Structure formats: structure tokens, C-alpha cells
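We give the chain.
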Amino acid sequence: MDTNMQPKDGGLAALDAAVRRDLEIIRYPRKEWIPPIERDGQRVLDVAIIGAGQGGLATAFALKRNNITNVRIFDRASKGGEGPWVTFARMITLRTPKYVTGPDLGVPSLTPRSWYEAQYGATAWEKLDKIPRGDWQAYLDWYRDILDLPVANDHEFTGVTWEDGLLRLTFRRPDGTSHVHYARKLVLATGIEGCGTWHVPDFIREGLPRDRYAHTSEAIDFAALKGKRIGVLGAGASAFDNAATALEDGAGSVTLCLRRKEIPSINPYRWMENTGFLAYYPALSDDLRWGFMRRIFDLNQPPPQDTFWRCRKHENFAYRTGCPWTGARMEGDEIVVDSPTGEMRFDFVIIGTGFATDLSRRPETASFAPSVALWGERYTAPAGSESAVLESYPYLGDCYQFLPRHKDDPLAPMLANIHNFTFSATPSMGLSGASISGMRFGVERLAHGLGRDLYVADGQQHLESLLSYDVAELVSLDPPVA
């Protein structure tokens, strides 16, 4: 929460009432429609969602709107710690404009603006530039509670297998116990690194003690870095966020290095925020989708202007372009980093080199990773447009489902029921659950596809239900009683 703002007395209670009224008004139809299934004495979940961050919560709400209520969301974090916002995110505000909507799915009383005005007043919203990240987490916490979404915290997902036409999901609790749940559909809403791992160059991992470097995704004791010489590797917004945090916590100096000749300045996310791209990109040909993504990935996401100024205002901040790191080693108690521009010496280094897409390195996907089709296997880029990064991303179906590398793969039926709503869906589906900008369109597309698949699978039962339906609406042929 923004500590400079004071909550508005009574505002949130009134908003809660408005949300309940709005949802009651638009609640149609009003009954569940999926036939229940049991396995081993427990009801099989129609949809299990891994990840209770913004994407997972919004997906559960969209399913609820469609009267798919036999759903559960699982998250390894304790309540309030889901997602990056109060864990490893180090920006002061969100990077998206404040007017961007998403989790609300078009319900005005559920929008971030409605929540913020209820908390702080309409004038505070008008004066606001971007939403503070602490407020965004508080908004998501409120959203979860007001919608009564079924979240099981402290459940670490350890893997999935296919058993007699159902997904068998295994979870580990903090006390070491294991739990099994069966589901018909599985949604992976595990964020930006959901289909891979945060990337640290081999020469860093092999050349430095583990306590002398950290990735931007990790917990960092910035207070312990006071007075130290800090090196930061990376050109993206997160690298600058961490550099700024180190400076604000009293680092002796911070030097940020990037291999590019210039700091990225054009943000493709702002271009992507148009209805055409957000709603219809997945319908494009592979050639066009590759062309879009090649350009978007080349541009990267630059630091916002206020983030750059957050660093640049410190005299002990420096940045070096055209300065990739090529090696790292210890000399005494100093870190020595090699680069084409010469040696640099630091006391601690922070790595902001993003993540690597590799399904085999995630517990959620490792068991079926060898069966999943990748872009590099489904598409051959024109000469000069190759991209090893894009080739490593999964090639998805029209509802975010994984596709098999080979049609006769015995895991093909399982893959058809696992839906990838992580950042790695981007080349196939455009902006999705890991992006606030694309959430509204991505969530609705996902929820529609999940419901479609479940209805088609049960089509014979629905027909039998109709054939046996005998509730009379016309009950009397007599004249009306005066």
C-alpha cells in the first residue's frame, strides 16, 4: 500500500456491496451444468489452476461467471505472498498505465480504479500516475476475498501424470506431506518463469561463491550491501529496479552493464495495447506471428523513464553500454568481471538476464516436457529472421493447450487438457495471463475454451439430460382463478 495515502473511511464497504449487487444483476444462467465425476472417493475437479496470482485468480472468476464452479486454485506461497508484487518485484509502481483493466473482466465495480477510489477517493485517483505495486497486491487480495475464490495456499505442485483419462496432480505441503487431487483440466498460471527457470550465466555460477551474486528474482539483503561496489548485468526494467533499490539502500556504487549498444527505449507493450492485437493475434498465420514476436522480443521492455531517473539521480550510478560480461572470478575478496571494455571489480553482483524457456526444468512440466511441440519444430523461420529464443517456446493450440510433437504420442490426450497460461504462451497467443495488459482478452479466451472442451466431452450426457427432461411449465388447462 502507498504509505503516503490514507484509506478512505467506509469506502471499501460500499464498494463491496456494489460488487455483490453487480454480480447478482448479471448472474445468468444460474445453475451448474457439468456432470460430477468421482475418483477414489473424492470429486474430481473440473479445473485445477496452479498459481494464485493475477492470472490464476482472474481465470477462476471467468470460470465462475460461466457457472464452472468445481474449481480450485493452488499456490505454493502463503496467503498474501502470491506473485512477485511483495516478494521480488522492486519497482515502486506498476509499469502499465493506471487505466489498464484486466481481472475485472468488464465489471466496473471490480476494476482497479473502483478499488483505489474506494480506498483513497476520486481525487487521489486523478492525481495518480501509476498504481504502486503494494496497492496492486492489496487490490488482488481484496479481489480474491470479495469473489470468494477457492485458493489452497501452501500447496507446492510437484507434478502431473495421466491416469485413466484424468490428470493426477501431486502437491507437497510445508510439513512434508503429499496430497493428490484429480482433475479434468489443468491451467498453469505460474507467471513469467512458468515454463523455464531464471537464467544465470554459467560463468557466474561456476566462477563465484553463491553468496556473492543474486538473480533479480531472488531475495536480496540490500541493507547488507551498504557501502559496497555493486555490479548489475542486464538491460531490462528489472535490472534497473534492482540497481535503484541498491542505490537507495546506500550502496557505495552501482555499475549497470548491458551488451546492447544503446539502452532500450521503445516499449512494444504500449503498441500491443490495442484491441486488434490483444483479441485477434492468435488467429494470424505462423509467418505473421513470428514476425510480430521477432520484433517484440528484439525491442525488449525498457526501463520506464521514472525508473531510469530513479537510478540516474545518484552520482554513484554508472551504466556501460556495449559491455557484455564474458567471465567472472574471485581475486582475494574482490569479484573480477571480464568484458570487452576491460576488467571491473565489485563486491557483489546482481544478475538481471531474465529467464530461459525449458519445460524440463520446471516441476510442473518436467514429466511431459519431451512430448511437447516447440515453435522450432513447427515453424522454419525465413533466412535472417531466425531466433533460438523463440524456437524454444511451446507451440500451443487455440485454447493455450500444449500440443504433441508427434500425433501418435501416448501423452497427446493428457497434453490436450493442460493449458499453458504463463508468459511462454506469448508467441502463440499474444499477451496473456502473465501480463496485465492482455489479461482481459486472454482470460476470456481461456475460459471459453475450457468450458467448450468440458461441454463437448460430456455431450452425450447433456443430450440424455435433455431427453429425460420432463419438468412441465404449463400445468393447467383450466381458466384462471378470478
In short: The domain at 200-265+302-353 is CATH 3.50.50.60 (FAD/NAD(P)-binding domain). The mean pLDDT is 95. The first strand starts at residue 38 and ends at 39. The radius of gyration is 25 Å.
